[in-house]
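ok so I'm stuck.
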Amino acid sequence: MLRGIYTSAVGMTTQMNRMDVLSNNIANANTNGFKRDTVVTRSFSDELMLRINDRTDFAGSRVIGNIRPGVFVDDIFVDFSTGPMEITHGTLDLAISGRGFFVVQDADRNGNTIERFTRDGSLTLNADGVLMTNSGQRILGELGEITLPAGYVTVTDLGEIYVDGEFIDTLRIVNFEDKHTLRKHGHNLFNTTDQSVMIDFEGTIVQGALERSNVNSVREMVEMITVMRAYEANQRMITIQDGILSSAVNEIARR
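replied:
not stuck anymore, here's the structure
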């Protein structure tokens, strides 16, 4: 009986984690270049369940039999599918058509300079004319930081930046053999891992456009309803099993 309560409790915890992920997706439905997350679950090992604190009868068979105490969150999977492209006509609005990431300069927790990666091409200039993300990270080109003088900015499909016809730098855009080796950092940025292998960018840059989030708000809301119903079902099962356990204990106590 206690295992049934544990199974329902694990199910409730899993649904809470799923709800957190869905809430974050919906909160970023209007964030440029955001990639939605999905929860990957796994069942508890049958064999491990059978071997922990289980007695055997005289024939050597297991008393409790084959039972799984629910599912656990195994991983958070990032959906890297491309979001819809929106034409903005903004001079510093850049969208990546194809696979690839802008390279930005950021700082780690110790203040050391580190490279991170983003699909968000909504860029701006600081007071010194340095090209930056809206979160404050500096966009990197092939020559390093990109500083733009006053004038009309043109960005070619290869990422070459011109101001009044004068070449300034080429945006540094990279790709990865397996994007799923990247890990979200926050501020719409990604970190590499030891398994990340960088390859050349083969797409194009579209000036005056932005890649929107790949979150479908309607789908996320429908999934939230499903999660809520699953949570409530597990909650009801705990109440039922607790009542049965209470009755069993009281009946045994009388005898």
